[in-house]
Amino acid sequence: MPSHATTSPSHLLRLAADRKGLLLGLTAVAIFSLTLPFTRMAVAELDPTFVALGRALVAAALAGLWLWQQRAAWPRREQWLPLALVSLGCVLGFPWLTSIAMRSLPASHGAVLVGILPLATAVFAVLRGKERPSPGFWLMALLGTALVVAFALRQGGGSFHQADWLIFAAVLLAALGYAEGGRLAQVMPGQHVISWALLLAAPLVLPVVLWNAWPQRALMAQASAAAWLGFAYISVFSTFIGFFFWYRGMALGGVARVGQTQLLQPFLTLLGAAVLLNEPLTGASLLFAGAVIAVVAIGRKLK
After folding, report:
1. Which residues 6+ apart lie within 8 Å of 295 measured at CB?
2. pLDDT tens, 11-66?
3. Gap between the Cα atoms of 55 and 205, Å rounded
4. Residue 21's closest CA among 253, 261, 303?
5. What is the pTM of this model?
6. What is the dihedral of CA 29, 189, 121, 142, to 10 degrees?
7. pLDDT at position 39
């Protein structure tokens, strides 16, 4: 006869929340996976600083309208510091550094470096939160990270480009923002987390965007539809809508565990880069993708 512990309503609810968190996390990863290809499309003709901070400004405007429509309550005093860290990592740091890096790196090359993001997110979750994943989870996270780093080195001929270090720094900042946002999403709606983080950054980015855009207005007017399409996607989806799914998923399934689904992101990005930018999709990348998917599946079982 099954034990009471495995059939109790609380246990079933926990399983349902865990599965829903995973599904929401995967949806967010699918959205985020196109960020680098669309960023590369944008920075090919637009200034990286304008792309990085302009997307934050557009998303902040959407966030303000959404919070006003929802009549959202102001965050509590103790929530402003975590919100500031979300702004630093997800609104400012990651977009700015990756926009600069995408000027010289192919999206397919930069994508594999983002594969270390789940491990970095889990580390910040442990340092800043109370999550304690099992040793098996850590082993799978390390193995998945080793796979994507090996892929990056293979693609780079055994060494990293200078822009790779910008990606690594961007990943660390994003991991901090993801972990802080995931913790906040356990006590306030995930939509509120990213919206308030965006509004918090708006007074900083507005003067920089205006100062940067005014001298380049003629060049911006000549930018192609593809460049503006890239800018629109990363503004609306990568910087705003994707986080609705992401923070809610982490609130339900745990920051470290749902964060591990981002091991899939580099390979979804490879597919996006192949479709949007005609970057080559090799058999080696597909083999690495299959290996990482297996690691994610095992990691979920060993949580």
Report:
1. 140, 143, 144, 147, 263
2. 767 677 778 888 898 999 999 999 999 999 999 999 999 999 999 999 999 999 99
3. 10
4. 253
5. 0.83
6. -60
7. 95
What's the rounded Cα separation, in Å, for the pair 212 and 47?
A: 8
Q: 3-state secondary structure string, the chain?
A: CCCHHHHCHHHHHHHHHHHHHHHHHHHHHHHHCCHHHHHHHHHCCCCHHHHHHHHHHHHHHHHHHHHHHHCCCCCCHHHHHHHHHHHHHHHHHHHHHHHHHCCCCCHHHHHHHHHHHHHHHHHHHHHHCCCCCCHHHHHHHHHHHHHHHHHHHHHCCCCCCHHHHHHHHHHHHHHHHHHHHHHHCCCCCHHHHHHHHHHHHHHHHHHHHHHHHHHHHHHHHCCCHHHHHHHHHHHHHHHHHHHHHHHHHHHHHCHHHHHHHHHHHHHHHHHHHHHHHCCCCCHHHHHHHHHHHHHHHHHHHCC
Structure tokens of 55? 């997307």
Contact call for residues 76 and 138 (beta carbons, < 8 A): no
CA distance 56 to 260: 25
Q: Is 255's pLDDT higher than 80?
A: no
Q: Looking at this protein, which amino acid is placed at residue 16?
A: A
Q: Which residue has the tokens 């822009």?
A: 163
